[in-house]
Write a structure and sequence with these properties.
Helix content is about 50%, strand content about 15%. By secondary structure, it is of the alpha/beta class. The protein folds into three domains: about 5-170, Nitrogenase molybdenum iron protein domain (Rossmann fold), CATH 3.40.50.1980; about 205-315, 3-Layer(aba) Sandwich (Rossmann fold); about 320-455, Rossmann fold. Strands 2-1-3-5-4 form a five-stranded mixed sheet, sandwiched between helices. Bound molecules: iron/sulfur cluster.
Length: about 450
């Protein structure tokens, strides 16, 4: 690539110069990568991350795995932000970093430095895999992670490009790494025997859940499946390399979070059927149990037994926690449609749901369910669309991202952060039916007090 393009790319960031980055990446031989990313993660009305750096999603997936080292290759300011965020979220793990300057970038020395770092890190006593993540500038500069050795002393080497100008959200960046690892593990499993997942393995047919879930949710979903005679396989993103083999060994995969396009592609390539939506509320749980039963080829009586056990319990919880709030829901986690379904079954009116994630077949049933009840579902929603919807709806409570919550508070609309609320609570089955409506009820109860406080302070500023 021409030195001037490299220099321009090095000066660009997510706050400007995305087209320069893309042009540089194409000139550096990354056209195929950009096309794949555009296909897997199609962009919508906004192509600019309006949340944290997308690469955080990949970094988080790597840092959460046992015996996996994660190394970043990117501008120092990006790496500072990413390591800060990862430790803010309690990573308690080291993040590797290969620094560069314009000379090492232009001469190709950066790639040699990455090779050296990977070789030094790939210690089989410590690691099953080393992940190296190209951020924006090294991707735009064509640093060829695909040329890295695939394995060093038995340690797998996974190189991925996660540029902000190709991967729109941190949620989809989780899929970039989860999908790359599953692809690698699938190839290993196809070549011969692989390590057995740790702990007792469930017998019989198993379902693998796709998505980063609240810790109480997988056991809750296992309880929903048990009357059908199904158990859980390890889920994705995995917590350990050998769990990838266990996940691939499932009977069907459930795309509980619907945006894991690369991961789903690997399950499909392994011949595993994919089930969309998730067990939220009564309708969602009934439909999901039926879909899982079909995918796993279970007898109708087994599906009926699972429904008979789960649905009355969920209905009872919903009946005891009725809501009358009018709400808007938006976020970038990918579970926004599921959350809205559950809250609407609990009695909330939700005219608008915005998600930063794209439309995929795996959220189609949720979108249909919401639209049939008059909800406008906005995929790839921008902050501006979310704020405009909130102004129009004038909700009792806004559930959204940090900037939406800020805009809501300026209008004295009670608001809670989607991420904090949803990821810190169960969402599925009877546990979810109890947890989410409870927090909505508590937050809307404070509206009158909130209005008094805003009226008291008026336009005063500090
Ligand atoms: S790596 Fe992340 S923080 Fe850095 S320029 Fe790209 S999107 Fe922005």
């Amino acid at each position: 690539m021409g030195d001037s393009l490299v220099a321009k790319a090095a000066e660009s960031s997510c706050h400007g110069g995305q087209e320069t980055m893309r042009a540089a990446a194409r000139a550096a031989g990354k056209s195929e990568l950009l096309e794949r990313l555009a296909k897997d993660y199609p962009q919508g009305p906004h192509d600019q991350p309006q949340s944290m750096c997308p690469a955080f999603g990949s970094l988080r997936v790597g840092l959460r795995m046992r015996r996996v080292a994660t190394i970043l290759s990117g501008s120092a300011c990006c790496v500072y932000g990413l390591t800060f965020t990862s430790h803010f979220y309690g990573a308690r793990r080291s993040v590797g970093y290969v620094p560069f300057d314009s000379e090492t970038l232009v001469t190709g020395q950066l790639y040699e430095d990455i090779v050296k770092a990977v070789r030094q890190t790939a210690r089989p006593d410590d690691y099953d895999a080393v992940v190296i993540i190209n951020l924006c500038v090294p991707t735009a500069s064509g640093v060829p992670l695909d040329l890295l050795p695939k394995e060093i002393d038995g340690v797998r080497i996974i190189g991925i490009d996660v540029p902000g100008f190709g991967v729109p959200t941190h949620a989809e960046a989780k899929d970039v790494l989860a999908g790359a690892m599953l692809k690698y593990a699938r190839a290993e499993a196809e070549r011969g025997a692989v390590a057995r997942p740790r702990g007792a393995l469930a017998e019989g047919k198993k379902i693998s859940l796709i998505g980063e879930l609240f810790p109480a949710d997988p056991p809750g979903i296992a309880a929903l499946l048990a009357p059908m005679g199904l158990a859980l396989a390890p889920g994705l993103p995995a917590r350990e390399w050998r769990d990838l083999y266990g996940a691939l060994d499932c009977t069907a995969a459930a795309a509980v979070h619907p945006f894991y396009t690369a991961t789903i592609r690997e399950f499909a390539a392994a011949g595993r059927p994919i089930v969309g939506s998730a067990p939220v509320g009564v309708d969602g749980t009934a439909d999901w149990l039926e879909a899982v039963g079909r995918a796993a080829d279970m007898p109708a009586a087994a599906v009926d037994a699972a429904k008979a056990k789960a649905l009355p319990a969920i209905q009872a919880v919903l009946d005891s926690s009725r809501l009358s709030a009018r709400m808007v829901v938006s976020g970038y986690e990918g579970s926004e449609l599921l959350v809205a379904r559950l809250l609407m079954e609990a009695g909330a009116q939700i005219p608008y749901v915005g998600t930063a994630l794209p439309r995929t077949p795996w959220s189609e049933a949720d979108c249909d369910w919401l639209e049939a009840r008059g909800t406008h579902v906005q995929y790839r929603a921008s902050l501006e669309q979310d704020v405009n919807a909130m102004r129009e709806v004038k909700p009792d409570l806004a559930l959204g991202t940090t900037p939406l919550v800020q805009a809501a508070k300026e209008q004295s609309i009670p608001a809670v952060y989607f991420t904090n609320m949803v990821s810190a609570r169960p969402l599925f089955g009877a546990a979810g039916a109890g947890a989410l409506p409870a927090i909505v009820a508590a937050q809307t109860a404070g509206r009158e007090r909130f209005s008094r406080m805003v009226a008291f302070f008026g336009d005063a500023t500090c």
